[in-house]
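Human: You know discrete backbone vocabularies at least as well as I do. Show me how you would write down a chain together with its backbone fold. No explanation is needed for now; the record alone will do.

Assistant:
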Amino acid sequence: MVRPEVIRRRIEAVSENLEVLERLARYDEDEFLADPEHYGSAERFLQLALEALLDMGSHVIADNGLGSVNQGRDIPRLFREHGYIDSALEEKWLRMIGFRNILVHAYLQLDRRQVYQVLCNDLADIRALQRTFASFL
């Protein structure tokens, strides 16, 4: 059974991260790209939000015996297979995981314009996954 406190703490962390990210998304692109504090903060808060989603996914899968997770990309597939998300949200989550991997492992090649585009266009997808996890409470 899913432990509510595990999910609740991570949902709260995602909310806190999204608050900061939504503030950063208010800057125009030139202003955002010109300030290392803006884009550095965005990169870190995106990473933290995406990590929390993966942590919650792993927790739900393990506690409910939904299957094996060999890599992060297994989590969205198992969620779709068990009816927790549809294929569209699965695909969005897979893209988020790919972006998280760039933030963590390929940060020297990171295109900060892509970070800005994520801020402006993809935060709603994080919120959608957050609502999915709220359903386990």
Observations:
- The two ends are 11 Å apart (CA to CA).
- The chain has a mean pLDDT of 97.
- The domain at 4-134 is CATH 1.20.120.580 (Four Helix Bundle (Hemerythrin (Met), subunit A)).
